[in-house]
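Problem 12. The chain below contains 156 residues. Write out its predicted structure in token notation.
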Amino acid sequence: MRGLFWKLSYNTNLLSGVLFVFIAILGFWLSRDLPNGTLSRMGTGYFPRLVCGGLLVMGLLACIQGIRSLDGVDEEAESLFAPAVIFIPLSLVLFGLALPRLGFVLSSAVMLVVGSLGSRGLGLVKFGGLMGALIASSVILFIWLLGLPIPVWPAF
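Solution.
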């Protein structure tokens, strides 16, 4: 059994909570000079502070959950999965590069396939269903409802 420092450094709830709290405090500090306004007449600082407040609450809840689960940290399950650190950011970069050439649907498929290489134990059927649902809902939301000028399919 390893010591308390090891448990703290591999406790993902605690680490993500600390990160959320840090980002919220940084956001509050950066928006300190912006006018807040009211709910009916929002100033430029209203929404950033609202988001930072939500992030602060989520971060504190994650920290509390992480501290409460220190005794139950599984050394094997909580170890960092190195391919995830590589493949997930790579998938985002590939999506950005492929979008103008391949369109939204194919670029999303490339992003999800490459990103899934950083995952453990995701079955092919489950992945196919998730990929179809994510792409369909993204097309409905971003292309149809929000009307973003993104090509859906490649222009050959």
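Discussion. Helices lie at 4-9, 12-30, 46-68, 82-116, 124-145. Students who got a different answer should revisit the alignment rule from Section 12.3.
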